[in-house]
Structure formats: structure tokens, C-alpha cells
């Protein structure tokens, strides 16, 4: 059951963002696709509800998978700041807060998985998660 809650959590975030981009149907598939691709466990997905520092490589790979499919993070782990900002704006974050979150949360790390996961943690701790 918890796995469905976590998948739903990411699906809500994604669906809200892509409605204006015309990708709603395609994006609904991303959480399940990434869960399948990364073979993430229910235990790992539970950490999505209250994200924080972790050594869980599967959770980080899952987050990277989602962010890549959303075109928020590129293959090399670099944030697409414009897409990240647009996602935040589409999720009801004010322009000023979106700018602040993009600046604070789009820090490139040594590994793409670290970049995506740390960006997600930063966003969830400092901003609004739908």
C-alpha cells in the first residue's frame, strides 16, 4: 500500500506540472516506469514522504529517473533551471519563491543521482510540495 502512496505522491507533482505542457497522460506513467526501471523497493519509496539525507542509491536513481523524464535534470546531472522554475510556478509557487528555490536547490553534485535527489530534498524542505 505504501508503494502506491509514494507513487501517487510523485504522480500528483508531475501531473500538476505537465497539464499546461500537454504531457499529462505521458507523465502519469513516469513514476511506474521509474519504479520498474530502478527496481525501487517499498521501503525506499517510503522515504519520499519525508525525504532527507540517505545512502539509498535506488531512491536516488528513482528520483533522477523522474527528473530526467520531466526534463528537470539532464543526463549529465545538470539542472534545467528554466524547466525547474516552470514546474514550480505551475505548482503554485510564486515567482519570487520559484527563483529562490531554483537558486538554492539546483546545485550540481558529483553524480547525477546526487544532484536530483538533493534537489528534491531541498525543494521539499524549503518550498511547497504539492
Automatic annotation (TrEMBL):
Keyword Glycosyltransferase attached: no
Gene3D superfamilies referenced in this protein's UniProt entry, alphabetically: Pheromone/general odorant binding protein domain (1.10.238.20)
Localisation per UniProt entry: Secreted
Pfam families for the chain: PBP_GOBP
The entry's keywords: Secreted, Signal
Gene Ontology CC terms: extracellular space
One example GO MF annotation: odorant binding
Record GO biological process: sensory perception of smell
Entry protein name: Uncharacterized protein
Organism of provenance: Zophobas morio
Amino acid at each position: 500500500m505504501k508503494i502506491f502512496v509514494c507513487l501517487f505522491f510523485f504522480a500528483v507533482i508531475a501531473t500538476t506540472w505537465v497539464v499546461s505542457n500537454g504531457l499529462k497522460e505521458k507523465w502519469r506513467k513516469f513514476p511506474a516506469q521509474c519504479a520498474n526501471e530502478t527496481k525501487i523497493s517499498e521501503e525506499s519509496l517510503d522515504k519520499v514522504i519525508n525525504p532527507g539525507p540517505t545512502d539509498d542509491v535506488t531512491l536516488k536513481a528513482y528520483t533522477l529517473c523522474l527528473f530526467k523524464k520531466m526534463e528537470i535534470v539532464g543526463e549529465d546531472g545538470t539542472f534545467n533551471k528554466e524547466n525547474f522554475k516552470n514546474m514550480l510556478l505551475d505548482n503554485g509557487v510564486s515567482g519570487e519563491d520559484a527563483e529562490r528555490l531554483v537558486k538554492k536547490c539546483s546545485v550540481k553534485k558529483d553524480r547525477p543521482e546526487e544532484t536530483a535527489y538533493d534537489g528534491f530534498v531541498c525543494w521539499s524542505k524549503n518550498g511547497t510540495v504539492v
